Amino acid sequence: MPSILPLGDPAPDDGRFPAAVGNRVREAAETGQPRTFSLYVHVPFCSVRCGYCDFNTYTAEDLGPGASRTSYADTVAGELDFAAQALAGSEIPPRTLETVFFGGGTPTLLPAADLVRILGRARDIFGITPGAEITSEANPDSVSLESLREMAAGGFTRVSFGMQSAVPHVLATLDRTHRQENVPAAVGWAREAGLEVSLDLIYGTPGESLEDWRTTVEAALALAPDHISAYSLIVEDGTKFGASVKRGTVPDVDPDDQADKYLLAERLFAEAGYRWYEISNWAHDPDDRGIHRARHNVAYWRDQDWWGAGPGAHSHLAGVRFWNAKHPAAYAQRLATGISPSVGREEPDAEARFLERVMLGVRLSDGLPTAALEEAPDGGAQARQEIAAMIGEGLLDGRAALAGRVVPTLQGRLLDDAIVRRLAGF
């Protein structure tokens, strides 16, 4: 979750939503394609801020009244209460939660009992669908067998570990604090607790060789996780890493190097039975049944609804996007005085929503329905020509196109931005 909030209109203090939101939710249900509802909980605390991180995170344990680690669970529970009132007051039909995701920061810096308490409050307020996916991010050195057992007993089903690399000098460059030997132990504890496991990896760090990256991928596969995310390192302005690149003390990332590493990862993952379903995500799925995909993230990519709780958290309800006050103290103060923690709101116009649908759709192995391109200003005429051209260039899957889906080939995944620009006509 990036730390810079977008521009938008002020959000009302009572948190009420336009009548159109409730109408859209009802209409979707009536057509047999109901909009799913999820919860994201942002926990902004970290033991150390990594040099590449642009998320809304803080290393201090106490950031003011209602924003300390000890009081944070109560503050978030207060937002969930507020959310229920705002939704009911806006006559938005109640829906149970399909997925819940605790992100950060490092959620597991909070006691497991606090995470379970927040989840329990969400269950009491909204209800949770049987079989729901409930995930927490974690650093490998921030958990124990006991804490993971407590989380599993409290309803968590999945944990996503920030492994990033298996090579000590790469971890050091990234300012990661955990030791690589902690990862197998943490994964083993999660398995013993009955939790599914996902591993997050980063490739393209300056100084990381192709063999370093192979070592990381093979180490991750040796742990047999259910799911793997692999992200190319992005140098963000305002980060320690970004400042080092500007000063020339650290080399910038090399797109060709990152492409080579992506291709290596895809080959090794596929050989081990992992199938890509989003450009940066692979699920262990040798029988192609769609299992172990991160359902929470799929809800984002498929433009479903979610409430984001916590400082700086973003939410989406039937076309309306809104976001909370960024600093934890300001966020907590708004809740303490009975007003919405949300400070901004927007409803993207048709052009923006079309661009977003194209951007997200072509990242998925399920693809973008070609019918969606009819939403373009020219009715999709240019996009259809571009599809034909990109099939010839080896960027799009021809068979998928014949079946009415825009799906990138492996080469196309490397040039995703170019595909989006050509389909969206800019």
TrEMBL record:
Quote the CDD domains the UniProt record gives: Radical_SAM (cd01335)
Coiled coil ranges (UniProt) are: none
| Keyword list, A-Z | 4Fe-4S, Chaperone, Cytoplasm, Heme, Iron, Iron-sulfur, Metal-binding, S-adenosyl-L-methionine
Q: What does this protein do?
A: Probably acts as a heme chaperone, transferring heme to an unknown acceptor. Binds one molecule of heme per monomer, possibly covalently. Binds 1 [4Fe-4S] cluster. The cluster is coordinated with 3 cysteines and an exchangeable S-adenosyl-L-methionine.
Q: Which Pfam families match?
A: HemN_C, Radical_SAM
Report if keyword Methyltransferase is assigned.
no
Which PANTHER family does the record match to this protein?
Answer: COPROPORPHYRINIGEN III OXIDASE, RADICAL S-ADENOSYL METHIONINE DOMAIN-CONTAINING PROTEIN 1, MITOCHONDRIAL
Q: What name goes with this protein?
A: Heme chaperone HemW
Q: Which organism is it from?
A: Citricoccus parietis
Among InterPro entries, the record links this protein to: Coproporphyrinogen-III_oxidase, Elp3/MiaA/NifB-like_rSAM, HemN_C, HemW-like, rSAM, rSAM_sf
Main location, first listed in the record: cytoplasm
Query: Domain Radical SAM core spans what residues?
Result: 31-275
What does the similarity note say? Belongs to the anaerobic coproporphyrinogen-III oxidase family. HemW subfamily.
Highest taxon above the source species: Bacteria
Per UniProt, subcellular location reads as: Cytoplasm
